[in-house]
């Protein structure tokens, strides 16, 4: 069997490679760099459901253990706290809402898993110059053959997008952001994210502070387009935040943020993932977290097609689902950036009014946008999802909350027998049958049926008597039906099988 080519060895590529191998597919991972760059915090904030994906390849618990757990997000205006919120778990996940850990450490842990997997080969110093494909597979650089490809070279994926004829439209923001990793002692700050609007130590702009392992903190300052780090008094800037205490500067960088999306995320046998397909500002930690969910979506669909468990048409749904997810992330982060960097004086005045009102009026606090934190995309409008009129999607929930389980929603995790619901769901396709419902007969080797005999499982789902729940291989709910004969049509829809004309 030809290997699946993974183009790019960052965390999205690493995730794709490990998940494809988990499905029994050989993988060849290519990266243009001579070796891994182990410098700087980069993407630090890993969301609970992403840790859960990594746990399917044996890495989630280790990443959580080595990281710093935080459960509270605080937002300030000047030196006054406006509000804080914690995070909802409708089930009983083994993971915290968020873990902060440097991208370098995440990559190190994933590399350890890759090194121990005989199905994965990694080639460094292999830049992609050409991509061609036909009905039999994908060829890179004229000589490297694969069955399919997941392209995740990161933000600098211009050549690959050009080869595929993919555009990457969007905007770039004028303001820059200075990032410093420091090691110091900040009592009381080790377990919470802090966001400051207009603090006296960065007037007119914002500062974001995240705790990291080993007594380190990451500080992000919004700075003007004219900012020159070579002329900056970094020590003075840092001391305005932490005071007169010893610290060690570990890393510094300046970023300009972009908001861009590929017009196509699937071109034949090549699927685009991560920053190569979408760029968003980091407020809300939606970049890497979304990229990992791209990788999971791509991996199970490629595997089901490659093994003959689903038709080739299933791959078309990768663009449908993950492009919609990227568009949602751009909308959310774009609104945040417009609140952080008002494009007009009218917008700036409105922001000042909202921040002033939020200090005394709790009803105004929902309008304060310091970044809606990462969450899975809800595939309620996916062509793979069978709608349930009894469970209409109520729309985006409040910050920190999650939707009630329904078709298109990621199922809450909870114990099921000696395992966990999401772990069992991610082994294939799961059918959960109410005790008073008829057990369906299905002819697909990747389908497992279970009775919903555990009251804790029924409570987590909000399952009603007589219901049958169909779960996808990425643990999202594909359908909730009320008779056994409705399951097979929902399964065919979940696999994007063409309708059979009677």
Automatic annotation (TrEMBL):
InterPro entries: FAD-bd (IPR002938), FAD/NAD-bd_sf (IPR036188), RIFMO-like (IPR050641). Its cofactor is FAD. Coiled coil: none annotated. Residues 3-330 form the FAD-binding domain. It comes from the Bacteria. The keyword Hydrolase does not apply. Keywords: FAD, Flavoprotein. It holds the Pfam family FAD_binding_3. This is Oxidoreductase. It comes from Paractinoplanes durhamensis. The lineage of its organism: Bacteria, Bacillati, Actinomycetota, Actinomycetes, Micromonosporales.
